[in-house]
Each structure stands twice: as structure tokens, then as C-alpha cells.
Design goal:
The chain folds into 4 domains: about 20-85, Beta Barrel (OB fold (Dihydrolipoamide Acetyltransferase, E2P)); about 110-235, Rossmann fold (3-Layer(aba) Sandwich), CATH 3.40.50.11540; about 245-305, Ubiquitin-like (UB roll) (Roll); about 325-395, no CATH class. β15 (about 275-280) and β16 (about 285-290) form a beta hairpin. The strands form 4 sheets. The chain has a 6-stranded mixed sheet with strand order 1-14-13-17-15-16, with helices on one face. It contains 11 helices and 17 strands. It has about 400 residues and is of the alpha/beta class. Bound molecules: iron/sulfur cluster (SF4) (2 copies). One iron/sulfur cluster binds near residues 319, 323, 366 and 369.
């Protein structure tokens, strides 16, 4: 087993920096978002490029162009916006239209405000009216410092975020959970201290610490990054355009869709061709093999893993040692579930509570034979979800 600290708190070395505007962006879109632009269309910074297929005010936010430019491609998972074309001889350059600041943001409340936030790019599906709201102020994973950086450098924006949520969802109580020993407060929030040793920092365990109850149904939890996004929209009154992402010891505010390669160039962090690179942290992040991929708005870090630092994860046979069971905070049996998933016995994982898995990655981390245990469980969950969706869509033939 590799030796690495699971402590997530750090002594911050720098301040939040702005990354430069890239020449081209690949703005990620999700399955439930429908592009509303065409190829070769000129778009202005902040213009809607994809809408969410949802009638509720509580849903995934709309997607916006993050630079002025021309739509170069519309892919199943991204909209590519490149530079504005040079004007033809004798013609005026095409001027992109940018949206005006949303003046009504200050006067709206309740569901109307949630709907407006959604249109401005906020994922409102994380909020429900009148529940207790917990802000997870712990850094999400070892080596990912965005939460502490934002709490240090963006207090004003976070305060705007709390004020907006007070009007939008009218939470009963607002608590912020921070690391033991840290003197951190936030406007309107009661401070609660918790362990900063992973996996205690993941949302379900933070809720347990803050409320004393497992999976309570009257509590919403959001990250500091989520709150920052609300505050950023409230401050600018413009659509959400940026993500806050850590690379090495630095944290950048970067336009959504900026290619990973561009941010790595800005950060100047050395890495080898055989290193692993992941979006988000080392425990839960997703490895990427293409550095042109655009940074999603909810990305917290670009993690660089040297080739010789960690053993290669491979589907080696489980030796039934039980290490993953001891490490699992959800108290399921990851080794057994991973074996069912490996042999496509997905239905067997359902009755053995695969849905209780919090996707913390501890099982993969401790496995002595380096099985991708959590990844097998995620595969099982995806299959079961797809199967349920299909079943729900079935109609009796008349
Ligand atoms: S990822 Fe593994 S250790 Fe974490 S909750 Fe799921 S099964 Fe348990
Ligand atoms: S830690 Fe790995 S080898 Fe041990 S029981 Fe879990 S999956 Fe199997």
C-alpha cells in the first residue's frame, strides 16, 4: 500500500489567481442539456449555448459561451468555441452580442430567483426550500485546496452567495463545517468543526458530523465552490463563466472550457509524458488522456500523478483480504460488490446496497492487489440506473 497523508488541510502558500483568456474553449455539456447554437454561429461571452431540458426551477444550470467567438463544433459532450473570424475585405467585423447584467436578480426571491439562477448557469438541483443548509468548508480531497483558498480570498463573494440563498431557498439554519483547529467563520453561518482527514471530508460524512444523523432528509449540503458560484453570479449579475481550480500549490479562476493543457502551461508545473492526469483529486478524480479537454465549471483540481508514485490499478483477482471492508465508511462489502460487477452480475449488487457507496475511493486506495474497486461499483451503479431508466420508459403495447 502506498504511503501518503490523507489530511486535507494545508498551509496556503499563495492567493487566488486569474488564468488568462484562452483562444479556444471546449465547454462541457451534459446529457440533459440541449445545444441552442449552430456551427459557425457568432456568440458573445455570456450568451446561452445550451439549455437544460427541465421545467422545474431546481435543475442543472444553462451553459454559456465563456469567450466571444465562433462555434466551431458541437460534440455530444462539449461545445467548441474558437476565435472570431477575421472580417472579409471591405466588411465590418461581426460583433458578438453579450448579455446585459441581470438587474432583477436583487428583487427576485423564492422559486423565481432559483429559476433565474438556473438560467444564469447555477445548478439549482442542489437546493430545496426551507431545509437546513450545510456548507462543506473542508478541502474535498488530499491535495485539493480550493475550499480553504476561497474561504481565505473570496469571503465577500461567499457572503453574497449566502445572502442570495437566504432569499432563494430560505434555509432554516446555515452551518459551515471547517477543519478542527481552524478559526474560520462566514457571514450568516454557525461554524462546526470536523476532522479534515479523508474520507471524513466527503459530503455524507460531513452531514453526519454537523447533524448527528445519517442521511437526514431535511438537509442540503453544498461545497464552498458551489456557494462561490452563486456569489459570483450575484456579484456580477452575469452568467457563470468560470471555475476555481487548483494545480499544484496554486489555485486559479479559469474560464469554463479552457483546455487543460492551457492551464498546465500557465501553472508551469513540470510533468512527464507517462504521468497520469486527472480532473479533480487523487481519490475521486477521473483520469484523462487528452489534454485538449475543457475544464468543467465544477472541477476543483487538475491532479498530476508521477508515473512511479502509485502502483498501476488493474483488474487483478480479489484475494478476499477484507482491507476494503475495514476502510469503507459506508459499511458495505466493496470486494464482494466489485466481484459481482466484474462478472456483470449487476442486479446482485443492488440487494447488497451498492447505492450506499459514497464513491470515496478508499477501497481502491487500500486494496493490496490494486483492484479498481470503486470503479467497479460505479460501473454497477451506472448499469442499474440505465436499467431503471429503461424500465420507467417502457409502456404496455395496446
Ligand atoms: S468507494 Fe469504496 S470505500 Fe468508499 S464508500 Fe464506496 S465502497 Fe466504500
Ligand atoms: S481489498 Fe482488494 S483484495 Fe482485499 S477484499 Fe477488497 S477488493 Fe478484494
Amino acid at each position: 500500500m502506498m504511503k501518503t497523508s490523507l489530511k486535507t488541510s494545508v498551509e496556503l502558500k499563495g492567493t487566488l489567481q486569474d488564468a488568462p483568456v484562452p483562444a479556444l474553449v471546449r465547454i462541457p455539456i451534459q446529457k440533459n442539456q440541449k445545444p441552442v447554437v449552430k456551427k459557425k454561429q457568432i456568440v458573445g461571452r455570456g450568451q446561452v449555448v445550451a439549455e437544460t431540458k427541465c421545467i422545474s426551477a431546481f435543475c442543472t444550470g444553462y451553459v454559456h459561451a465563456t469567450i466571444d467567438g465562433m462555434v466551431e463544433d458541437i460534440l455530444p459532450n462539449a461545445i467548441v468555441v474558437g476565435p472570431l473570424p477575421a472580417p472579409k475585405e471591405g466588411e465590418d467585423p461581426q460583433m458578438p452580442v453579450r448579455p446585459e447584467p441581470c438587474a432583477e436578480l436583487d428583487s427576485l426571491s423564492g422559486e423565481d430567483l432559483c429559476r433565474k439562477l438556473l438560467e444564469l448557469g447555477i445548478d439549482t438541483n442542489k437546493f430545496h426550500p426551507s431545509r437546513t443548509l450545510i456548507i462543506n468548508g473542508l478541502n474535498p480531497e488530499p491535495g485539493v485546496v480550493v475550499s480553504e483558498q476561497l474561504l481565505k480570498d473570496a469571503q465577500k463573494t461567499l457572503e453574497v452567495g449566502v445572502r442570495i440563498l437566504e432569499r432563494a431557498v430560505k434555509p432554516g439554519t446555515v452551518k459551515i463545517v471547517v477543519a478542527e483547529g481552524k478559526n474560520i467563520t462566514l457571514y450568516g453561518c454557525t461554524t462546526v468543526h470536523a476532522s479534515d482527514v479523508y474520507p471524513a471530508t466527503i459530503d455524507p460524512l460531513v452531514v453526519l458530523t454537523a447533524t448527528g444523523v445519517e442521511r437526514p432528509d431535511n438537509v442540503d449540503i453544498i461545497s464552498v465552490s458551489d456557494l462561490y458560484r452563486v456569489g459570483r453570479v450575484g456579484e456580477t449579475k452575469l452568467p457563470l463563466l468560470d471555475a476555481v481550480v487548483g494545480v499544484g500549490e496554486s489555485v486559479y479562476r479559469v474560464l469554463t472550457g479552457t483546455p487543460v493543457q492551457d492551464l498546465l502551461n500557465v501553472a508551469g508545473v513540470p510533468y512527464g509524458a507517462d504521468w497520469k492526469i486527472a480532473l479533480d483529486g487523487p481519490m475521486r478524480g477521473e483520469a484523462i488522456c487528452d489534454l485538449t479537454v475543457g475544464i468543467p465549471e465544477n472541477c476543483t483540481a487538475i491532479t498530476l500523478v508521477p508515473a512511479d508514485q502509485f502502483p498501476e490499478v488493474q483488474p487483478n483477482p480479489c484475494i478476499n483480504c477484507g482491507e476494503c471492508v475495514l476502510a469503507c465508511p459506508a459499511r458495505v462489502q466493496p470486494g464482494m460488490l466489485s466481484r459481482y460487477a466484474e462478472f456483470t452480475l449487476f442486479e446482485a449488487t443492488r440487494s447488497r446496497h451498492v447505492d450506499a457507496c459514497m464513491e470515496c475511493g478508499m477501497c481502491t486506495f487500500v486494496c493490496p492487489v490494486n483492484r479498481p474497486v470503486m470503479q467497479f461499483l460505479k460501473l454497477a451503479k451506472q448499469h442499474l440506473a440505465a436499467q431503471d431508466e429503461f424500465t420507467a420508459s417502457c409502456r404496455l403495447q395496446s
